Structure to design on (116 residues):
């Protein structure tokens, strides 16, 4: 498995209006994205939103889960973020499984959010 910066937003499944904004954000350095590949196929992705220090959009293809791919993508993005001067990083875990995965790579629960 190789984890590297995503080369372009072309492979994204963002609707057309969002594609332009995503490409602009990547080009301006507001986002940094990474993709994990196995045999050339993208099996995991993630993005660091630089302006607000948020790790977002970390996902692994279903058939490749439980192999450390999301952790590797997260590690790549977070290492780069801190090496470039980031002082903090945060995220919103979608569910208990995601919370456990993020805890394994060093995140801890600080606050919970409620929707009314």
């Amino acid at each position: 498995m190789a984890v590297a910066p995503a080369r372009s937003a072309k492979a994204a499944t963002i609707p057309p209006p969002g594609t332009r904004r995503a490409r602009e954000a990547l080009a301006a350095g507001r986002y940094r994205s990474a993709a994990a590949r196995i045999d050339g196929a993208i099996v995991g992705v993630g993005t660091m939103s630089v302006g607000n220090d948020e790790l977002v959009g970390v996902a692994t293809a279903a058939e490749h889960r439980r192999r450390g791919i999301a952790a590797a993508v997260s590690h790549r993005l977070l290492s780069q973020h801190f090496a470039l001067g980031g002082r903090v990083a945060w995220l919103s875990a979608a569910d208990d499984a995601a919370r456990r995965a993020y805890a394994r790579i060093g995140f801890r629960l600080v606050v919970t959010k409620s929707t009314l």
Notes: The mean pLDDT is 86. The two ends are 42 Å apart (CA to CA).
